[in-house]
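Hey,
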Amino acid sequence: MGEKSRRIWAFVRKDFIESVKNRSILIALILPIVASVLFGVLDDVQAPKNFSLAIYEETESDFTDYVMDSAMNFVVTAVSNAEDGQELVRRGEVHGFIEVQSEDEFMVFLDSGRPVYFFALSEHVRHLVDTYLGLPLRYDLEIVAVGNTTVSRSVLPVWITVTMSMIGVMVVSGIFAEEKDTKTIDAIGVSPAGYGELLLGKGLFGVLLSLLTVVIMLALNRVVGLTVSGWLALGTLTFFGALCFTSIGLLIGVLASGQSAARSVATMIYFPLLFPALISDLSALTRRLAGLVPTFHVFTGLESVLLHGQGITDVLPEVLSLLVLTTALIFAARITHRRMVKANA
């Protein structure tokens, strides 16, 4: 390894050590990772299977007995009047209350504070009443889930895109601009390292930090089973995405006068950078606009790979778009950096 490479890696090691000591950076990195893992708790959560139900019969009927005998997923409580049943729902002690007003007349009260139970229970109660009255089903509808995507896997493309863009735009820009505040950049300018090696070191740090964070997120969310082409697509997308976002951060850091200015500019750019990707499906216009930002191509490509099992050939449009955007951003960062060097000369 040459002397130049040693100096570049020294910059990378320095930034990794400082990022570990910097609480703001740690929190910014840890929160998305933890959030992506917490969504794994939802993987085993399905539509509610057990319901608590209060029933009051104004006239003699066998509806309560019918529900107890035929609906095994209901815990039934018989009440002596309608007011008691409604009060149980209001207090949240039962999910619903059925008032049987006559043999074929029912009034149902459901707890609207629990939306998941509300919609599931409304369908169950309607089916129960239909079968109790012997009404024929009007149609047979079967819904089949295609694929075995878990909840955590379905939101992982979003978290990876958010995390990589945050590291590149927010973290890298701040770390580069910090060298201006501490006057370290002035010392580097007259040292053997030079400004160019500083720029390469900061860029390499941003890319490696992004890739390391993505690897941790994939491991914690147990992403396995991809094909060789799928892994290749995933690696290519994350690499070019990390490089693209890091280039944006370097451009901001070079242009900013200091860390405070870099953070302000990065914040103004970060959220507009994410928004087009989130609204891309609203219309043809929003999709065309989203195609102008790298977050859209990273997110779309990750969805194709992680949710639909596609490979490198399927995400080539996204990869090529990222390549074009990254090349333009690197060129802009390099030109701006040269101007900064001349100004400091």
